[in-house]
Design brief:
By secondary structure, this protein is of the alpha/beta class. Helices cover 43% and strands 16% of the residues. It has a domain of 201 residues: Spore Coat Polysaccharide Biosynthesis Protein SpsA, Chain A. The chain is built from 10 helices and 8 strands. An 8-stranded mixed β-sheet has the order 3-2-1-4-7-6-8-5, sandwiched between helices.
Length: 296
Amino acid sequence: MTSYTVGIPVRNEQNTLVDCVNSILHQTQKPDQILICVNGSTDNTHYIADEISKKNKTVSLITSEPGKPNAWNEITEQSRNNEIMMIDGDALINNQAAKNLYQTLSKNKKTLISSGKISFTKPSKETLFSKIFTENYSTPIDINFLSGSIYMMKKNELIKYAKSMEINLMPTNIISEDGLLDYLTRTNNSRKQAENAYSTIIPIGNFNDWLLETFRIQKGKKQLEEKYPKLQPIENRVLRRKNRLNRLKKLTPQKKISFIGKYGIYCAIGLCIKWTKSDYDILWKETTSTKQTLKI
């Protein structure tokens, strides 16, 4: 395994950043560069990132204009390696994640991104909402979409392919940068999911936060469909529905009811957004229930 960079775009991650970086430093295959990009934080994230960088020569603190796409651009520009693993600042990764993502990425020249699974950890302050609506705890969930909380990419090849599709990565006016990468690499089958590579995150703890997140996701999808209609083959939607059905089969009867109910509301919000005029503010309001200290 050659050298690789880790990029961590962060905004108001003061409670989770230290544990996030520690999970990266404990990888079986360690990176030779870790870039923490603070973009628009209003809490102590910048100070914490600065303290981390002073204690570890591998870590560098960089900044960008507010918005995750701006952080993505800054990280890719300052990375000295072609292979970059992106991790959200409110996530932990298992200690073999980087090794397995890299192996999956390097198996085939056509693979531009290797993605991971997601896992939920019990929050320190569990709520009735998280207890009922969290799919499961600890067991990584097999997803068929790209999660921004964990993936590795071949920077130069990805940017070159995007240009061939008349897209200059990363557009700074989009809500969902990981959504764009998902659509982009799904179109030519250039993304593969790695085994035993996953991020652990805190589940959403209340209905208001879930609505905020759902509106962000649905607005991001609508924006991408409007801007990049060529990246929306019908098979994408079919695969997503199959994935949800497979996930549903693995749940207990009680969890199945909550899963179906939540998905019904999710689809209803999507329809409302589809047929109404949307504002595409890249600086969405944050979900506070997911910002607790991470524990596994």
